[in-house]
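[job 0412] stage=fold_complex status=start
inputs:
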Amino acid sequence: DAGVIQSPRHEVTEMGQEVTLRCKPISGHDYLFWYRQTMMRGLELLIYFNNNVPIDDSGMPEDRFSAKMPNASFSTLKIQPSEPRDSAVYFCASSPVTGTSGGNEQFFGPGTRLTVL
Amino acid sequence: AQSVTQLDSQVPVFEEAPVELRCNYSSSVSVYLFWYVQYPNQGLQLLLKYLSGSTLVESINGFEAEFNKSQTSFHLRKPSVHISDTAEYFCAVSDFGNEKLTFGTGTRLTIIP
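[job 0412] stage=fold_complex status=done
writing structure:
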């Protein structure tokens, strides 16, 4: 398996523009997570899905952020309009469901480095 | 609510010396504990985890961590580090039955030749 795939790897945009980040989870994984990593705030969970359904979006910063998972093999994180403070590395991760409820390994993608000018 | 504290943001260590990266957590319920490693310009990878059973867990590359419930700690140790261990290490916790992870702020391990 190719692992979790994220695109683009780097994105530079101007304030006010719409940004869409994409993620393809590992085939067969039931959970998908979106994280944001910054020097100031560390690694923050934004939202996660189970079987394409959003379970917890309490980490989404504000209404400018939205995430969708239209099918088991694709998810997007959209920022509209973008602001300089959104500059960060955004990670997507997926995990399978095993016999343990909770405690499953999350497999991370390489991340998208977003710079908003 | 859960929280994870990694007191050391940076730890420099000479090659072949031992190292301990500290992690303390707080939670009102039973938890699972994890250490993830992030190499430069990469995503995080699972290093080891504690779910139940023996409180000492090991990774394939010589790291170990011990779950101490009374001290609410899950410190990571390695008896002899190598240059290739240079990375950022994150401690994380999840509640039983919950896939959501709460991460610490990370510890950057730098190996000095």
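[job 0412] summary: Chain B has a mean pLDDT of 92.
[job 0412] exit 0
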